[in-house]
Amino acid sequence: MGGGRGAAVPIPCPFCRAATGELVSLFGSQLLLSQYRCTRCGSYFEGLREDRWDAGPVEPAHEGGDEYGG
Ligand SMILES: [Zn+2]
Fold first, then answer.
1. Cα(26)–Cα(35) distance, rounded to whole angstroms?
2. Backbone angles phi and psi of 54, in degrees to 5
3. Has residue 44 been placed in a domain?
4. According to the model, what pLDDT value does residue 14 have?
5. Higher-confidence position of 1 and 67
6. Distance 48 CA to ligand 1 centre (A)
7. 63 inside domain
8. Which among 2, 12, 24, 27 has the fewest CB atoms less than 10 Å away?
């Protein structure tokens, strides 16, 4: 098996729908977003990072309590 670098998945541009999004910044406005730039129309957009998030501590949902409000 030949060693190959993990090819980045092309990000589809939300403007021209062309999968020519290049990673510009690893972090966008939010932590799980990365900033991309479309090489076709030159528009900047954000997309989800490729990194997968492990199952972290999930906050418990609101406690459901059946109470009769009178
Ligand atoms: Zn585009």
1. 6
2. -70, 160
3. yes
4. 93
5. 67
6. 16
7. no
8. 2
The answer to whether position 27 is within a domain reads: yes
The type of residue at 10 is: P
How far apart are the CA of 11 and the centre of ligand 1, in A? 10
Q: What's this model's pTM, rounded to 2 decimal places?
A: 0.56
C-alpha 63 to ligand 1 mean position (Å)? 45
Over the stretch 24-67, which tens digit does the pLDDT of each residue have?
998 888 888 889 999 999 999 998 876 655 555 566 676 666 77
Q: Which residue has the tokens 């910044």?
A: 25
Q: Ligand 1 center to residue 12 CA distance, Å? A: 8
CA of 53 to the centre of ligand 1 (A): 27
Q: Give the number of domains in the chain.
A: 1
Q: Given a cut of 70, is residue 1 above it in pLDDT? A: no
| Alpha-carbon distances of 22 from 25, 34, 70, rounded to whole Å | 9, 10, 58
